[in-house]
Design brief:
This protein starts with a helix and ends with a helix. It is built from 19 helices and 17 strands. The strands form four sheets. A six-stranded mixed beta sheet has the order 4-5-10-6-8-7, sandwiched between helices. It has about 575 residues and is of the alpha+beta class. Helix 12 crosses helix 15 and helix 15 packs antiparallel against helix 17.
Length: about 575
Amino acid sequence: MYENFVKDRFPSHFIVEYTYDAEYQYQYQYIRSTRSSSTMGVNVRKLQPLAKKWLGKSPGVGDSLTANSLLRTCLSGLSTSAITSSSVLAKSSPRHPSDAYDTSLFSGIFGDGGSARVTTPLSEPLAGVEVAAHEPQTQAVSTNMTTMSNGVKVASENTPGATATLGLYVNAGSMYEHGGCMGVSHLLEYMAWKGTTNRSSLRVVREIEAIGGNVMASASREQMAYSIDTTRATVPEALEILADCVVNQRFELWEVKEALERMKEDVKGLEDNPQTTLLEAVHSAAYAGGLGQPLIAPKSVVASLTPEVAREFVNELYTGARMCLSGAGVEHGELVKLAEPLLGGLPAGMVGEPPSEYIGGDWRQFSAAPLTHGVLAFEHAGGWNDVKGSVVATVLQYLLGGGGSFSAGGPGKGMHSRLYTRVLNQYHWMHNCTAVTSIYNNTGLVGIFASAESSHAEDMVAVMCKEIEAVAQDLTETELERAKSAAASSVLMNLESRAVVSEDIGRQVLTYGHRKPISEFISEISKVSVADVKKAVGEMMKKPPTMATIGDVASVPRYDLVCKRFG
C-alpha cells in the first residue's frame, strides 16, 4: 500500500529502496532522489495505516524538491501523535545545505529520537486566521520641486530616518565631449572632491570627515553625478561642501597629473575586463555622434587632457538650467533656502544635447586567450522618454536574465531565467551568458553578453542570435509574470535605499523635468503583455544589429551574415 502511494505520487526521479533489518526484516523503506545523495528512512509498518488516510490526496510536490523536502511535505499532513520516536529511523548524508532537514522541527520523525512535534501545513488557509491584504506603498512620500531663477531645479523627499543624502546632477557627460576635450568626463570623475577656489584638498577631506560624511562621484554618457551622505543635523555643512566642490573646482596641475595616472591604470585594467571593454566598443559601433563617444578615455587622448580643458568643459556645461540638486531625508523648504546663496549665482545657460544616430556595426579584437567574449545588441528606440518602451526593455532584461556558469546562484538570483536554463544549463562550453541594457533619454541598447571556449566562438554567436529570436516566438505568460515580478521587486527594493532615492530624483528631473511617482512605473510593469514584448523584440530585429567580440574573432561569423539572419 505505502509503496504504491509513494510511486503514484512522487516524481519519477524519486525511487523506492529496501534495506534488510534484523529486527523488522525488510520493514524499512527508503526514498532516495536520483539527483541527490540524500537518503531518508521511514518505518513502513507504522506509516502504512496513516498513508491510507492520504490516498487520493495529492501532496502537491514539484520536481524541484529534494528527498527531504518531499518527505516533509508528505508527512506534514499526518498526525505525528501516531508516530513515536522509537519507530522511526533517519539516515541522511546531505551534499548541500538545502538537503539538510530541520532537526528541531522534525526530530520526532527524522533523527535524534526526541519527542514528536505537531506541524501544520500552510498550503491551506488556517482556520480562524484572517490575513489582511497588503498593497505595496509605492508613493509613501511625495517629491517636492522648486525651480530657482537661474534654472537650477531643487527636488527632495523627506524620507524618514536620521540620515540624509544630497546630490548634484548635471547634464554633462562623454556625449558632450568634442575635439580636444575627449575623455574629460572620465577626468572629472577623478577630480571630484579635490581642491576648490575656497578649499584645499586637505581641507575638503577634513571637513567631510568632521561631519561623518561619505562622498561619491560618477560619470556617464549623459550626466555627471556628485553625492554626499550625511546626518540630518549636518545637512547645511554637507550642502556647502557639495556645492563648492562641484561649481568651484580649481583643477590644480599636480592634482590633474595624479588623476591622469589613475586613468591610465583604468585603461590597463580593461585588458582584464572584457565585458566593460565590449560595452564600450558596442557604443562606438552602434552610434554615430554623441553616444558613440568613449566613456573611458582612450590611452591616445589621456596626454592631451589639461586643467584648461577641464575648466573650459565645466564652465560651458555646469550651468543652472542643466543642474538638479536632489535630496532624500531633508525638509524641502530648508533645502531651497540653503541652496539659494550657494547655487543662485550660476549662469542659466543651456546647451542642446548632441545628436546620436543608431547605425549598427561590428567591432572585433583578436586575442589568443582560451575564451572568446561577445556582445550582440539592438537599438531600443525611444529611451527613457518612451516610458512604456523603457519598461518593456527592463522587463525583457529580467526575462532573459542569465549570469555565469560558476556564479553563486540560488532562488532569486535569476537561475530560472531564459539564458540560465536554455543556455548555461545546456551548453557546457558556455561560461557566461547574461542580458545587458543601456538606456538613455532618447535611445538605448538591449542585448546579450556571452563568453565561451574559443573553439565554440561560432556556436556562441549562433546561440545569442537564437535566444533573441526565441523571445519573439515562444514567450509564455508564466515566464513573463516571473520577469515582471522580478522587475517590480527590484525597483521597490532599491528604492528602500535613501541614496538611490536621491539619485532617482536627480536623474528623473534632468530627463523628464519632474519626478514620476514610482506607482506609475509599477503600474506600467504590471501592464506589460506577451504581445508587448514580442512586438518590441520584433521592432528591434528590424534594424541592423551591433556586434563586438574579443578572442578568436576569425571564427566569429561575418557581420553581414548575422544581419541577413535578422533581416
